[in-house]
Write a structure and sequence with these properties.
The complex is a heterodimer of chains A (94) and B (554).
Chain A: E1 2-8, E2 14-17, E3 23-24, H1 35-46, E4 52-61, E5 64-65, H2 70-78
Chain B: H1 6-28, H2 33-41, E1 45-47, E2 52-56, E3 62-64, H3 65-78, E4 82-85, E5 91-93, H4 101-109, E6 127-128, H5 143-153, E7 168-171, E8 185-191, E9 197-203, E10 215-222, H6 226-240, H7 251-258, H8 260-272, H9 276-279, H10 283-292, H11 306-314, H12 316-325, E11 326-328, E12 334-339, E13 350-352, H13 353-366, E14 370-373, E15 379-385, H14 389-398, E16 413-414, H15 429-441, H16 445-448, E17 453-456, E18 470-477, E19 480-487, E20 499-500, E21 505-506, H17 507-524, H18 531-538, H19 540-548
Parallel strand pairs in B: 6-7, 7-8, 16-17, 17-18
Antiparallel strand pairs in B: 1-2, 2-5, 3-14, 4-5, 4-13, 8-9, 9-10, 11-12, 12-15, 14-15, 18-19, 19-20, 19-21
Helix pairs in contact in B: 1-2, 1-4, 3-13, 5-10, 6-8, 7-8, 11-12, 15-17, 17-19
Classes of the chains: A alpha+beta (94), B alpha+beta (554).
Chain lengths: 94, 554
């Protein structure tokens, strides 16, 4: 499965496209797409240029990054592995 | 220190106003990200894994206490309370919001700082010896020349769209602390047979995916012609450097494909026909710049200090710190006090806002208001009286900056790696942390002696692994982090590129494997022989056996 991710334009925070078309800060809330459906959704996300600095697809299942870029995307989703006090890993779910 | 004149001030303020407009247009959607990206990069603003990253220039690594306090303020107000000192004597903030960046740049401009030329295909922030103006072995302060290069290169219209980025380093000491042989241009001030000082001009060095040692194209360039000669080099590069392939666009590729002699001839031809008077600064301008770097009002002191000797005798930890972290000063009674940003277990080069302020206070009180950033991601107070060194040490220790490991095994250079960097393939910091803890906590560091371990999280080599005595390069193998070890590199006057030992090791294996290298060295060294010298004598094959030991080879 795929998810759309990017960094918010205004502050750079890591976000994912959720099912309601909003950006969510939690990978577990990301909308999971079948591989075949992902590209058009990504294209639509990329067109939201006032919201997002970049947008690309990642492999994800069950709220976690998978595939070859899993480590990178897990670090993006959580924060630096060497600073557990920083990033989303340090922020309680609201 | 150099102080901005009205031209510097105007350039920086106008640039901020321009960037503020560009940010507004990006936020409004008038600019796409593809259009905006080169503009933000020209202002030092990257987009990394977690957030934007702002790289701020610290020209030739020199900071005043006022500037350091401002960096602390920015870290607190706009970031997450810390900064990261880089291998190019700059500072990076890892979490700024785009909407705040114009204001951050205004706050930097208030203290004569900016983020210009910290990115993009231009002449980057010039680096130098962190001991400039203080080193016992220097023939003159190289910083006036760095400043002259800075003024000439800042927003230079002809050299703002080079084939690739361009890095210049300057040293004026026999012991090269500026790594001039691994820069696009390295400049070494030295004295010729007639007793005159001039530059050895070294071109085409560099690290990255194609590491190369620079070639000397001129043994002795009269100082007053520095800029016209640099211009000639830049013109040859700008014309002939490749633009069709980003990986072959650095000047090192041109120098090494054309041959150093052919490149030298092209530069000399260009230079001989150039209007030198139009570029080279007049003598009075050189003197004007030089006056900014006049030595501070040093006291006339005895070479030895009773207070220092007494403190050393009473406090063994201080004695060790002073032995390891203090370096000889050219003025009797003074020393250079190195401040390690490599507390074992902490990310190399990171410094908290409170620590920045503590260091600023020490610079103001004990070092004529000056401090320096080193390309090995540490700081130093360049001019400390031996009488004051114990006070400085205690204040550093209280601030959590008391590590005594400069040049030792736990003084590890590491790029941010996959914990922060968009380009990285593997993490660097956790490997650095585990190695530093291993060597520092085992108590064997002093016995190991001079050992430079450098770690990069990708082939771009920001961690300078090619010139580590032991280099570690993180690679990605099918989604797993692996680490390739190189041996025998050196950034100094005996510059050498490390040799790749063999196949990569897993994150679990690499720390023990490096430990085995060090054990092998300890078992086979001669009296007083450094790791690097032992490696050069014994050779790759036997160190390779030690590295792999019983580790699984992948």
């Amino acid at each position: 499965m795929k998810a759309v991710t990017g960094n918010l334009l205004s502050n750079g925070r890591v976000v994912y496209l959720a099912a309601d078309d909003h950006w969510t800060e939690r990978l577990e809330d990301a909308m999971l797409l079948d591989d075949a459906d992902a590209e058009p959704v990504l294209a639509a996300a990329k067109s939201r240029i006032r919201e997002i600095a970049n947008a690309y697809l990642i492999d994800a299942e069950n709220g976690a990054a998978t595939g070859q870029k899993a480590l990178r995307e897990t670090i993006r989703a959580s924060g630096p592995s060497v600073r557990k006090d920083l990033g989303k890993q340090a922020e309680p779910r609201s | 220190m150099y102080r901005y004149d009205e031209f510097d001030e105007t350039i920086v303020r106008e640039r901020i106003a321009e960037f503020r407009g560009q940010v507004a247009r990006r936020l409004s959607g008038a600019l796409t990200e593809d259009q905006f990206k080169p503009l933000r990069l020209m202002n030092g603003l990257y987009l990394q894994l977690h957030a934007y990253m702002l790289r701020v220039a610290i020209p030739y690594g020199t900071l005043s206490s006022r500037q350091m306090r401002r960096l602390a303020h920015i870290a607190r107000k706009y970031d997450k309370g810390y900064g990261h000192m880089t291998t190019r004597q700059n500072i990076q903030f890892n979490w700024p919001a785009l909407v705040d960046v114009p204001d951050i740049l205004e706050e930097l401009a208030d203290v004569e700082m900016h983020a210009i030329q910290t990115s993009g295909n231009c002449i980057r922030n010039v680096t130098s010896d962190q001991y400039a103006g203080a080193a016992a072995d220097e023939i003159e302060d190289p910083r006036p020349w760095c400043e002259i290069i800075r003024q000439w290169s800042t927003l230079h219209p002809e050299f703002s769209y080079l084939p690739r980025k361009f890095k210049i380093a300057v040293t004026a000491s026999a012991h090269d602390r500026a790594a001039v042989r691994v820069h696009d241009i390295g400049l070494r001030l030295h004295r010729n047979a007639e007793g005159k000082t001039g530059f050895e001009v070294i071109v085409g060095g560099g690290l990255g995916r194609t590491p190369m040692i620079g070639r000397t194209i001129r043994e002795f360039l009269p100082k007053e012609h520095l800029l016209s000669y640099l211009e000639a080099i830049m013109r040859v590069y700008n014309l002939h450097g490749r633009r069709d392939n980003i990986y072959k666009a650095r000047i090192k590729i041109l120098v090494h494909s054309e041959g150093a002699e052919s490149f030298r001839r092209a530069v000399e031809d260009e230079w001989s026909g150039s209007d030198k008077a139009a570029v080279d600064p007049p003598r009075e301008e050189i003197e004007r710049i030089r006056r900014y770097f006049a030595p501070p009002p040093f006291e006339k002191l005895e070479p030895e200090s009773a207070a220092f000797d007494k403190a050393r005798a009473a406090d063994a930890e201080f004695a060790r710190w002073a032995r390891v972290n203090a370096a000889p000063h050219k003025v009797p009674g003074y020393v250079i006090a190195n401040i390690s940003l490599k507390t074992p277990g902490a990310p190399p080069g990171d410094i908290s806002a409170a620590q920045m302020e503590a260091v600023a206070d020490l610079a103001e009180r004990y070092s004529f208001d000056e401090l320096r950033v080193t390309h090995e991601q540490n700081l130093c107070l360049p001019h400390v009286k031996k009488d004051d060194l114990y006070d400085v040490y205690r204040a550093l220790k209280a601030a959590g900056l008391g590590a005594a490991n400069i040049g030792l095994a736990s003084d590890i250079v590491a790029c941010p790696g996959l914990d922060y960097c968009d380009l990285a393939n593997a993490r660097s910091i956790p490997i650095a942390q585990r190695l530093a803890e291993r060597f520092a906590f085992s108590g064997e560091e002093d016995d190991i002696g001079d050992l430079r371990i450098k770690i990069s999280g990708c082939i771009n080599a920001c961690g300078h692994h090619h010139v580590g005595h032991i280099g570690v390069l993180g690679v990605d193998k099918k989604g797993e982090e692996f680490y390739q070890v190189t041996l025998g590199g050196s950034p100094g006057e005996d510059a050498a590129l490390g040799e790749i030992v063999g196949r990569g090791l897993s994150a679990d294996e690499v720390v023990d494997a490096v430990g085995r290298l060090v054990d092998f060295y300890k078992d086979h060294r001669r009296e007083g022989e450094r790791f690097l010298d032992a490696y050069r004598r014994i050779g790759l094959e036997r160190f390779k056996e030690a590295l792999y030991g019983d580790a699984e080879i992948h």
